[in-house]
Amino acid sequence: GEDVEQSLFLSVREGDSSVINCTYTDSSSTYLYWYKQEPGAGLQLLTYIFSNMDMKQDQRLTVLLNKKDKHLSLRIADTQTGDSAIYFCAEMSDYKLSFGAGTTVTVRA
Amino acid sequence: EAGVTQSPTHLIKTRGQQATLRCSPISGHTSVYWYQQALGLGLQFLLWYDEGEERNRGNFPPRFSGRQFPNYSSELNVNALELEDSALYLCASSPGVVRIYGYTFGSGTRLTVV
Predict the structure, then answer these.
(1) CA angle A96, A2, A45 (to 5 degrees)
(2) Which of A53, A88, B22, B109 is spaced 20 to 30 Å from B39 by Cα?
(3) A45 contacts B103? CB cut-off 8 A
(4) How far is the C-alpha of A35 from the C-alpha of B98, rounded, in Å?
(5) Which residue does chain B place closest to A99, by CA atoms?
(6) Is B62 on the interface with A (CB under 8 A)?
(7) DSSP of B51-78
(8) pLDDT tens, A30-83?
(9) Between these two residues, B13 and A92, which has the higher pLDDT value?
């Protein structure tokens, strides 16, 4: 995932909002995704956004896309202990998904 | 609907041996993707199969190979195993060219090379 960059760690207090940031390089990417990986598990698709959208909201999740800066963010409202996981940003490019290194989110009481 | 299934869950091999990992996609999905998730390296794209053909390959040596069967299930073979091949290998599937909803991943095979 050298074309997709994310910060590696985020610590957040339970009940607060989490914001995970991502930058990507392929301006032709049409679709961008957020996946969640819990310990010992595979990847679960959380949400996706099309490149012609600026924002998408899905319950506690809000995705913001800034195409000009190639910046994608995921906001989790009212973060819970079950949100502790690794979050991956991914772009669809050349018919394959390219992933960032993942952001490990730790929720503290 | 059954998800993407991978077998075995865990695999321990000795350096120099061969490993075979298997993946069954979601029913109706024709594309299968393989990724390697090594510690500290994120997810690295390995291979993409669609309709029985290899469509794309990541930056891995030729000892990483695979195939897709007529029922769209897939095998990943790793020959001449090296210690650094130890990783979680994830398989994903999608309904062919319709990828807008991303991929569905299996739970992975944990390969340990000793």
Answers:
(1) 50
(2) B22
(3) yes
(4) 18
(5) B43
(6) no
(7) TTEEEEE-S--TTEEEEE-TTS-EEEEE
(8) 789 999 999 888 899 999 998 888 999 999 999 999 999 999 999 999 999 999
(9) B13
